[in-house]
Amino acid sequence: MRNLLQWENYLRPYFQHHLRLIGEIPLSRRDLEDMADSLRDLIQSETITQATENLIKIYPHVFLTFLTGFAAHNLERDFWGQVAQRLNIQHIHNHHWHRHYVDLVKQRGLRCFSGDETSRQYVTTIRFHGGIPAYSMPDFINSILLPSVERPTLAELPADEALNLILQTVYNVDAPVINFLTNSGELGVEFFKACREMAWSYLKEKEIPAPEITDLPAYVIESFSNYMESSQEQGLHLRKPVLFFDPYDEPHLRLHLP
């Protein structure tokens, strides 16, 4: 288990090499829990005011990465209340963690939502940067991406309409996938559109486009490539069934079998 300084030294280089989403950093759920424990210990050993100052000045990348990862896994509307509960903080809003997060994001040249774009600019920015973690990519590919290009009724729709319909009707999908696609606005649609083009290219030509052509993070392309190669090696697409609900068409419930 790393301490906070070790985590900071581990995370800093990722922010110095063309990071687009903080969620691109490869971390497991266990890593996030370890970070949370270390943050809680820091807060318990100092006042929350001192701990906040140290996080911003000494461990800014731990601060950013933990909040981003926590948001990716948390579906509760009271996001900050959930953070406060996990870290045992009282009156978290008095310490302006939401503003510190956005300030640090801006300082690193990363995407930040404005009040004109959303009424919840702070949480929306955090959830956007959660992205789709590498370990949730198989669920995204299985439950959302491939159905969107393989089902004729979805394949003929533009990306925004297909994504909206899928998000309204699909169940049993990892929370980070739903969080990112729900909170990322036009950028999420552009990401989904690029993923569809990658999937279509593979299905038609059996080739994975290069990252500079797709404008997708390398880990997304690698995850898709690994998923499809694994399916080929098994001789068929062994993907889990997906349950769709459509209140406007019968039958209302449809089971999509791979």
What do you see in this structure?
With 258 residues, the chain is mainly α. The protein contains 14 helices and two strands. The chain folds into two domains: 127 residues, no CATH class; 123 residues, no CATH class. The N and C termini lie far apart (39 Å). About 2% of the residues have low confidence.
The share of residues in extended strands comes to under 5%
The run of helices and strands is: HHHHHHHHHHHHHHEE
CA-based gyration radius: 20 Å
Q: How many H/I helices?
A: 14
Number of strands: 2
Instruction: Please bin the fraction of helical residues.
Output: 55-70%
Strand order of the largest sheet: 1-2
Overall average pLDDT: 84
Span of the ends, CA to CA: 39 Å
The secondary-structure class comes to: mainly alpha
**Biggest sheet overview:** 2 strands, antiparallel
| Shape, per Cα inertia axes | elongated
- Low-confidence region ranges: 244-249
How many domains?
2
What order do the helices and strands come in, and which of them pair?
Elements: H1 4-15, H2 29-45, H3 48-57, H4 60-73, H5 79-87, H6 97-107, H7 121-130, H8 137-150, H9 152-155, H10 159-169, H11 175-183, H12 185-205, H13 211-214, H14 218-233, E1 242-245, E2 253-256
Antiparallel strand pairs: 1-2
Helix pairs in contact: 1-4, 2-3, 2-4, 3-4, 4-7, 6-7, 7-11, 8-12, 11-12
